[in-house]
Amino acid sequence: MSNRASPQAPPQGVRGHTEAPKREPHVGCDGCLARHLSVCASLPQEETRDLEAAAGKLRLPAGATLAREGAPRREVYTVTSGMLRQVRVLADGRRLVAGFLQAGDFIGLTGSTLHRHTIEAISDTALCAFPLQGMRALCERHPELGAGVLDHAFHALDASETNQMALARMTPLERLAGFLLDMARRQHQRGGEEDRVELPMTRADIGDHLGLTVETVSRSFTRLRREDFVHFDDPHHIELRAPDRLRALVQSTG
Amino acid sequence: MSNRASPQAPPQGVRGHTEAPKREPHVGCDGCLARHLSVCASLPQEETRDLEAAAGKLRLPAGATLAREGAPRREVYTVTSGMLRQVRVLADGRRLVAGFLQAGDFIGLTGSTLHRHTIEAISDTALCAFPLQGMRALCERHPELGAGVLDHAFHALDASETNQMALARMTPLERLAGFLLDMARRQHQRGGEEDRVELPMTRADIGDHLGLTVETVSRSFTRLRREDFVHFDDPHHIELRAPDRLRALVQSTG
DNA sequence: CGCCCGCTTGAGCTCGCTCAACAACAGTGG
DNA sequence: CCACTGTTGTTGAGCGAGCTCAAGCGGGCG
């Protein structure tokens, strides 16, 4: 066996309690913080009426489960705030975190009628929900929307292959450095500070994303800190001290 | 360093000589062996005129390079016969084989104006080529075609994440077993025998796909053979002796 | 207050990598 | 025709990076 099976997350929620996801009517795309990042951006401002009509707003507390691997899909989502993880689990508990979803990210990049991941909120999260049916109709009426979905699929594919390279051929330190740079870039796009990364997920989540154990993730953080690549007191708020030196660590092909 | 850098393939071709790719006029989709598998299948038989008009036929000898990572993209392709590999390389030579392409597979699943992979023919290969421009026009005229591309992107994404799970959390034996089963399934869809797999690629290619060294791939084959999961004399023609026992090895979530 | 969870650190071991050798084979050139 | 060379696949021996096991610390929550 290559890796210890992570202890399964509790079947529901975290911190003992599980609030049910809260549904609210959609309030309009105009003030949406994620609009410029999401598939919705492929539609001009004036043509969001159709979207708004179909959309529902959804709030998930940290630890809540949005969807289970293998369960039927009824909706697609756009994340407006917070963070979620997409998880696949083997029968014996070995876990892969396929990705972390943030504002603007799209949930529903599959042709399957079933969910391909279990999707869990890491922090308190808000989403826009669109029924699958309505989505199909919307895409026919607004081809740009379909193009937007395709574009997100292409990006997801590229990210997935980049992570394959990390998993297949890079050292723990390189994987973690690459991960931090990627998260920093994405959070900077979303208005975060350039050299700060928020990591609300646990070290186990990061490990299951990078193909490492918790211990190796922790040790790699310690090494990055000791050599002054990063600084942190709280393990969930990382300051990148030398992004360029970090980039040199990852030495990609560009 | 996690892995030895594979010696770079010769810049052009293999076996000393490199024939230039041969271009021929497209002869029509009717007799195409890959039609039912490819994006072209999303168009009804009668509406292939447009496709045929735009298409060119391309033949590559084994070892030839179709595209280089980072080079500008001008066309998309559908594979009609043979096999190719999609490769990404780091500056120091560490290599990832992102996938093996066979009849019906689509080349061009990216929104980038540049190629995301170096693409090399493993065996003699035939492709249909469509200029990028024409493709856009075709997709607007036939929305089903765009949907077909989206569907291929979804499948590629799923395959990529399945491989991520293998790379992150599975043993060499499990990775190889999963790989053989996947190749067998795909070749069976294409009319191959159910329990035979053709592996024209080298052990190094398989290693760079599964995140292993040549030696470990070879040893894993030997183990599978010793325990009668597979049988082979020629390392490129594998007979699966007990697909069900192999599947049990891979114990997925379904 | 006590328990549990998450993070970190240490000690030791194992599995897959590194290094090395060899056989089989194909292509090359004398 | 055969010696020579380079490539591919296989196997062995040994090593070290990352995993396993174990312990401790701090914070949050009941």
UniProtKB/TrEMBL annotation, chains A, B:
Keywords: Activator, Allosteric enzyme, c-di-GMP, DNA-binding, Repressor, Transcription, Transcription regulation, Virulence. The keyword Transcription applies. Residues 170-244 form the HTH crp-type domain. GO terms for cellular component: cytosol. Its main location: cytoplasm. GO terms for molecular function: catalytic activity; DNA binding; DNA-binding transcription factor activity. CDD domains: CAP_ED, HTH_CRP. Transmembrane segments: none annotated. InterPro entries: cNMP-bd_dom, cNMP-bd_dom_sf, Env_Response_Regulators, HTH_CRP, RmlC-like_jellyroll, WH-like_DNA-bd_sf, WH_DNA-bd_sf. It is found in: Cytoplasm. Residues 1-25 are annotated as: Disordered. Residues 39-108 form the Cyclic nucleotide-binding domain. Residues 16-25 have a biased composition (Basic and acidic residues). Homodimer. PANTHER family: CRP FAMILY TRANSCRIPTIONAL REGULATORY PROTEIN, FUMARATE AND NITRATE REDUCTION REGULATORY PROTEIN. This is CRP-like protein Clp.
